[in-house]
Amino acid sequence: MSKYTTGEIARLCGVSVRTVQYYDDRGILAPSDLTEGGRRLYSEDDLRRMRVICFLREAGLPISSIAALLAEKKPESIISLLLEDQESVLREELSKTQAKLELIEGIKSELKEVKNFSVESIGDIARVMKNKDKLKKMRLTMVFTGIPVTALQWTSIVLWITNGLWWLFVIWAAVAIPWGIAVSIYYFRHVAYVCPECHEVFRPKLKEAFWAYHTPKMRRLTCPKCGQKHLCVEIYADKEHIG
Description:
Structural class: alpha+beta
Helix content: 55-70%
Shape: elongated
Radius of gyration: 33 Å
């Protein structure tokens, strides 16, 4: 049966000699034999054991868990449980990392729209990014609630043209107008705007906000603090946002 020195087993497993010695010190890879000079010698079984240890380490399992596992009489029955647990941990870490990457991408995207970059600009971007998902969710909710109203609108128009049923259009108007007013009030009560000049966070009057020129992210409004009219960035308005 082949015997391997510490250097040989380290080379075969792609680790350092110090790593092999460390595993010996921790009692998870003791050599099967020693030379007359006291040098460690490892068997084929030791090599297979070392490869298992390296595999588990690469999977992210801590040394303490590996030591406990290999101390069992039938470690193979526990390996799958440990790997499932480690998979769960790694997926959670991956999810957190992905969220950080999305945050960085979002900040980079917002920075492209900042003409005069300053420290205050970072604060503005932070406000935008903090509740970006809430703002998106609110907008989607509004879209979904508007689907039945839109469906009624087109149905009433088609039936008016084809069958002369004008009264269905009147019903749509009676529904759409109150719905539009209610949705507008709800929306503007849940958003605020950041002035790009003085960085004030404010909530405009409903009439001004409703009729103002706007893009998906901004609305042209007059800041109550500096009095300047700009395209102000829209954010989801938590209570702490409003000064």
